[in-house]
C-alpha cells in the first residue's frame, strides 16, 4: 500500500514488510504469466498456472492472512494483499481465499475449520461463492433455492447465477431457503462441487471471460454441510459482504490502470492539455481513495461508522476505476477502442496493447457487484448520516 494513514503502530511495520515480500513474489511469478494465457478463462490465465501460483503463495503463508481474528494487524495485511494482487494482475483474488474465506473463518464449526482452513490458506482448495440468483441479486431475500431437511441432512435444489470461477472451484459456499419466512429462513451451506447433482454452465461475459451458472439438482447434503447457524444466513452474509468492501483490490487495479495511462501519455509525447488535466485529477482521486480505504480499515469494527466507511470506500474506488477506464480510452482516441484479452501472447496494434478497451469493459461490474453502489449510498445515508431507513415503494 502506498499510504499508511491511520494504521496503528503495531501494524505499520508488518504491513510494510509483507507488502514488499508480496511485490517481489508477484513480480517474479507474473513474469512467466505470458506463457500461460487462457483468454477465455477468468483471470486470463490457465488453471494449472493459477493453481501453482496459489500453492506457492499458500506455502509461503501469504493466503488468508487477514482472516477474522487470526492476527491483530489482519485487516491491514489483507488490504495489502488485495492491493498487491490486483496491481500485479495476479490470479489470486477470486476463487482462492478472498471470497469464501471470511465466511469459513468466521462461521465454520470446529470440524469444518480443521478441514477447510488449512487447505484454503495452503492454496490447495478453492471455493466459489454462489449466492446470486436470476431474481435475487441486490435483494438476496428474494432467493428461491431451497434446502429441505431429509434423513438427517438436506436436499438442495435451485440455480445460482453470475458465479465467479465455479467451473474450477473444488467447493462452493452457497445459501438456500430452509423455511418459508423472509430472511430468517435462510441457511448457508458448503457444497462439494463434485457431488452428484451439481452442474456448472459457463456463460460468456462482455470482456470475453465467463461467469457461471451453478445448478443444484436435488443435491444430497450431509448435516455437516451447514455453515454457521441454520436460519442465520442473512446476518452471516451481511458480515461477509462487508468484509469484501475495503475497496483495496479496486485500488490495486486503479494503480495498475493509472500506471498504464501514464506510460501511454509519456510514449505519445505527454498528451494533450485535456488528457493531462484529467490524468492529474485521477491521481489526486486515487490518493483520496487510498485514504478512504485506510479510514474504513481504522474504524471500530462492528460500529455503524465502520459500515458507512466501508461503503464509502467501495463506492469511491469502483467509480474511480470506471473513470480511469473512460479517460484512458478517450485519451488514446480510436486506438483506445481496440480490445485485446489480458495476457494476449502478441500485443494488439492498439494503445496499451488493447488494455484500455479491456479495462473499459471489465470495470463495469464493480459498481454492481458486492452490493450495488445505490445500495451503498443508502447505507452511508443510514449508518453514516443517521437518516431513517429508506421508504420502499
Ligand atoms: C463480474 C461479476 C462477478 C460476480 N460474482 C459473483 C459471485 O461470485 N457470487 C455471487 O453470488 N454473485 C456474483 N455476482 C453477482 C452480483 O453479486 C450481483 O450482480 C449483484 O448482487 C447485483 O444483482 P443483480 O445483478 O441481480 O442486479 P439487480 O439487483 O437487478 O440490480 C441492478 C441495478 O439496479 C439498481 N438497484 C437494485 N436495487 C436497488 C435499490 N434498492 N435501490 C436503488 N437501486 C437499486 C442498481 O443500479 C443495480 O446495479 C457477480 C456479478 C458480476 C457482474
What's the quick description here?
The chain is of the alpha+beta class and 393 residues long.
Blueprint of the fold:
Elements: H1 9-30, H2 47-59, H3 74-87, H4 98-107, H5 110-121, E1 127-130, E2 146-150, E3 153-163, E4 171-177, E5 186-192, E6 198-204, E7 210-221, E8 226-227, H6 233-243, H7 248-267, H8 273-298, H9 304-332, H10 355-362, H11 373-384
Parallel strand pairs: 1-4
Antiparallel strand pairs: 2-3, 3-7, 4-5, 5-8, 6-7
Helix pairs in contact: 1-3, 3-7, 4-6, 7-8, 7-9, 8-9, 9-10, 9-11
Residues 128-132, 137-138, 162-164, 211, 365, 368-369, 372, 374-375 line the site of flavin-adenine dinucleotide (FAD).
Description:
With 393 residues, the protein is an alpha+beta fold. It has helices spanning 9-30, 47-59, 74-87, 98-107, 110-121, 233-243, 248-267, 273-298, 304-332, 355-362, 373-384, and strands at 127-130, 146-150, 153-163, 171-177, 186-192, 198-204, 210-221, 226-227. It has a 4-stranded mixed β-sheet with strand order 1-4-5-8, with helices on one face. It has a 4-stranded antiparallel β-sheet with strand order 2-3-7-6, with no helix packed on it. α3 runs parallel beside α7 and α9 runs antiparallel to α10. The termini are far apart. It binds flavin-adenine dinucleotide (FAD).
Amino acid at each position: 500500500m502506498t499510504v499508511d494513514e491511520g494504521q496503528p503502530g503495531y501494524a505499520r511495520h508488518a504491513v510494510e514488510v509483507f507488502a514488499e515480500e508480496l511485490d517481489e513474489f508477484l513480480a517474479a511469478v507474473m513474469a512467466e504469466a505470458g506463457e500461460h494465457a487462457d483468454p477465455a478463462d477468468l483471470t486470463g490465465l490457465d488453471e494449472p498456472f493459477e493453481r501453482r501460483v496459489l500453492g506457492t503463495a499458500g506455502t509461503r503463508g501469504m493466503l488468508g492472512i487477514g482472516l477474522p481474528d487470526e492476527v491483530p494487524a489482519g485487516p491491514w495485511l489483507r488490504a495489502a494483499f488485495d492491493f498487491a494482487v490486483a496491481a500485479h494482475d495476479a490470479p489470486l483474488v477470486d476463487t482462492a481465499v478472498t471470497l469464501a474465506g471470511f465466511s469459513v473463518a468466521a462461521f465454520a464449526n470446529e470440524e469444518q475449520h480443521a478441514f477447510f482452513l488449512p487447505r484454503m490458506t495452503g492454496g490447495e482448495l478453492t471455493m466459489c461463492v454462489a449466492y446470486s440468483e436470476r431474481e435475487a441479486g441486490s435483494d438476496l431475500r428474494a432467493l428461491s433455492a431451497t434446502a429441505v431437511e431429509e434423513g438427517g441432512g438436506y436436499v438442495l435444489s435451485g440455480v445460482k447465477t453470475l458465479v465467479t470461477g465455479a467451473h474450477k472451484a473444488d467447493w462452493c459456499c452457497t445459501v438456500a431457503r430452509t423455511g418459508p419466512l423472509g430472511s430468517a429462513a435462510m441457511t448457508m451451506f458448503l457444497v462439494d462441487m463434485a457431488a452428484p447433482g451439481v452442474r456448472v454452465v459457463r456463460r460468456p461475459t462482455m470482456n470475453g471471460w465467463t461467469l457461471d451458472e451453478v445448478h443444484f439438482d436435488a443435491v444430497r447434503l450431509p448435516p455437516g454441510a451447514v455453515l454457521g447457524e441454520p436460519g442465520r444466513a442473512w446476518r452471516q452474509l451481511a458480515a461477509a459482504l462487508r468484509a469484501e468492501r475495503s475497496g483495496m483490490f479496486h485500488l490495486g487495479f486503479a494503480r495498475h490502470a493509472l500506471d498504464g495511462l501514464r506510460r501511454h501519455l509519456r510514449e505519445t509525447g505527454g498528451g494533450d492539455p485535456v488528457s493531462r488535466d484529467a490524468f492529474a485529477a485521477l491521481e489526486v482521486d486515487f490518493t483520496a481513495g487510498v485514504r478512504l480505504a485506510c479510514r474504513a480499515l481504522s474504524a471500530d469494527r462492528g460500529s455503524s461508522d465502520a459500515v458507512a466507511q466501508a461503503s464509502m470506500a467501495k463506492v469511491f474506488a469502483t467509480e474511480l476505476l470506471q473513470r480511469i477506464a473512460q479517460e484512458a480510452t478517450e485519451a488514446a482516441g480510436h486506438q483506445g477502442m481496440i480490445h485485446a484479452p489480458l495476457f494476449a501472447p502478441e500485443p494488439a496494434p492498439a494503445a496499451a496493447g488493447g488494455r484500455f478497451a479491456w479495462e473499459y469493459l471489465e470495470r463495469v461490474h464493480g459498481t454492481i457487484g458486492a452490493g450495488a453502489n445505490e445500495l451503498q449510498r443508502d447505507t452511508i445515508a443510514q449508518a453514516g448520516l443517521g437518516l431513517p431507513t429508506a421508504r420502499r415503494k
